[in-house]
From TrEMBL:
Subcellular location: Cytoplasm
Location, primary (coarse class): cytoplasm
MF (Gene Ontology): O-phospho-L-serine:2-oxoglutarate aminotransferase activity
Cofactor: how and how many bound: Binds 1 pyridoxal phosphate per subunit.
UniProt source species: Mucilaginibacter aquariorum
Record-listed pyridoxal 5'-phosphate binding positions: 78-79, 102, 135, 153, 176, 218-219
Cofactor: pyridoxal 5'-phosphate
Keywords, ordered alphabetically: Amino-acid biosynthesis, Aminotransferase, Cytoplasm, Pyridoxal phosphate, Pyridoxine biosynthesis, Serine biosynthesis, Transferase
Job of this protein: Catalyzes the reversible conversion of 3-phosphohydroxypyruvate to phosphoserine and of 3-hydroxy-2-oxo-4-phosphonooxybutanoate to phosphohydroxythreonine.
Matching InterPro entries: Aminotrans_V_dom (IPR000192), Pser_aminoTfrase (IPR022278), PyrdxlP-dep_Trfase (IPR015424), PyrdxlP-dep_Trfase_major (IPR015421), PyrdxlP-dep_Trfase_small (IPR015422)
Name of the featured protein: Phosphoserine aminotransferase
EC number: 2.6.1.52
Residues annotated as domain Aminotransferase class V: 8-91, 150-294
Residues bearing PTM N6-(pyridoxal phosphate)lysine: 177
Gene that specifies this protein: serC
Length: 342
């Protein structure tokens, strides 16, 4: 088992509650006393089909997914969605919000399929694509435009705050932040939007193939789905999305308050856009950066180094990170300010 005294602020892949990790580990050894690992049981068995169904039901309940939407489990990460989305839906052109590192990657892929408009004052084309939370920059969309075919990459904030699924034609998310281990991609799509695709798409890149085969056209990522089911059960048992949102807000508010108060640090995202999931900040004095990093690590605060192209710090506050970890980080920032370490 991992050292429980560590506070994991890593941006991924995946932060899970200890309880979920323990149940997943038990199932790898002997799933439900069947004498087989969850990794060995046939994915076509009734027992595993029930896991897929249960996971879908949990997604539907937690996000209040309307009946006319499909919930699909794919592979290839959010990065494959950067290509699948335009391959399926871009005919004449599409508008993309050019908001951050991953949005730019999505645009690069879309441009292989047709023209991309970046002017969001003139939303045109077959759909509008945005990223709800910029994992690297630490900014988050607080509301979404009211446009007909809205597609959103929610990889780093799905299940962290309430959303209104009916505002979207399609939502996708790499599972590995708040849903479960890497290896699975969640897609939630309006059926009529999927059915509007008239051209031929290769089977593994066609959303309808996943829908029509219950996400089991080929061998699904069995462990990722199983662990996601356990994690979503945990989320439901703690009060679901509204309750976790309250906690996530409390965690982020506490950390931003300290960043704003502390004379050594400053936030890097614009204040109205500050993310509840990925808190980015830096030291006023760049030479202090490695010193604070080392100090934080000595206190068991891991994963706060900013993305390699951005620098500074990034504290990811995913659902499974407890408030006590944020308190530990805030304490360390205060101690650092009051000490002679720097
Ligand atoms: N989109 C966002 C917002 C992300 O945070 C990430 C990864 O962190 C990706 C896309 C890429 O996801 P994947 O590694 O699953 O392809």
């Amino acid at each position: 088992m991992p050292n429980v005294t560590k506070h994991n602020f890593g941006a991924g892949p995946c932060v899970l509650p200890q309880d979920v990790l323990k149940k997943a580990a038990d199932a790898v050894m002997n799933w439900d006393e069947q004498g087989l690992s969850v990794l060995e049981v046939s994915h076509r068995s009734p027992a595993f089909e029930a896991v897929v169904k249960k996971t879908e039901t949990l997604v539907r309940e937690l996000l209040q997914v309307p009946e006319d939407y499909s919930v699909l489990f794919l592979q290839g990460g959010a990065s494959l969605q950067f290509c699948m989305v335009p391959m399926n839906f871009l005919r004449d052109g599409a508008t993309y919000l050019d908001g951050g590192f991953f949005g730019k990657k999505a645009i690069k892929e879309a441009e292989l399929f047709g023209p991309v408009n970046r002017d969001i004052t003139q939303i045109t084309g077959d759909y509008f694509h945005c990223t709800s939370n910029n994992t690297i920059e630490g900014s988050q969309m607080k509301s979404f435009p009211d446009v007909p075919n809205l597609i959103c990459d929610m990889s780093s904030d799905i299940f962290s705050r309430p959303i209104n699924v009916s505002e979207f034609a399609l939502i996708y998310a790499g599972a590995q932040k708040n849903m479960g281990p890497a290896g699975m991609t969640l897609v939630i799509a309006r059926d009529a939007f999927l059915d509007d695709v008239k051209h031929q798409v290769p089977a593994m890149l066609d959303y309808r193939v996943y829908r029509d085969n219950g996400s089991m056209y080929n061998t699904p990522p069995v462990f990722a789905i199983y662990a996601a089911m356990l994690n979503l059960q945990w989320l439901q048992s703690t009060g679901g999305v509204p309750a976790i949102y309250k906690q996530n807000k409390a965690k982020a508010e506490m950390l931003y308050a300290e960043i704003d108060r502390n004379s050594l640090f400053t936030g890097t995202a614009s204040v109205p856009e500050r993310s509840l999931m990925n808190v980015t900040f830096k030291t006023h004095e760049p030479l202090l950066e490695p010193v604070f990093l080392a100090y934080a690590e000595s206190k068991g605060l891991v994963g706060i180094k900013g993305y390699r192209t951005v620098g500074g710090f990034r504290a990811s506050l995913y659902n499974a990170l407890p408030l006590t970890s944020v308190i530990a980080l805030v304490d360390a920032m205060q101690e650092f300010e009051n000490s002679n370490i720097y």
